[in-house]
Amino acid sequence: MKIIVNSHYGHHQCWQPWVEFFRTAWPDCPYDTVLVSDKCYEHPAEFDVKWSFDEDHGWCANVLNYLEHIDDVHVFLTVDDF
To answer: Which of 47, 60, 42, 41 is nearest to 18 (CA)?
Structure first.
């Protein structure tokens, strides 16, 4: 299973606070946290995995593209804009 945050760079200020809140709420989470965004590789937010497209194809297309590239049967989809 993966814990996915689907976002775009316009919300990058929310990424690290999301990580901090999530790790406070679930400190021993055994699953990878994954940031899916149009550009995120250079951002310092401490996700386990960053999946970037280098351009924004839209919220739904971005997450569907990521889901097509993983083998996990289950995902937990979250959003970053509390």
So the answer is: 47
Neighbours of 1 (CB within 10 A): 12
CA dihedral angle for residue 63, residue 67, residue 69, residue 73, rounded to 10 degrees: 160
Question: pTM of whole model > 0.85?
Answer: yes
The token duo for 49 is: 């995995």
Q: Are 39 and 57 in contact (CB under 8 A)?
A: no
pLDDT for 82 equals 59
Handedness of CA 45, 51, 57, 80 (dihedral sign): negative
- Please give the Cα distance from 52 to 39 (Å, whole number): 5
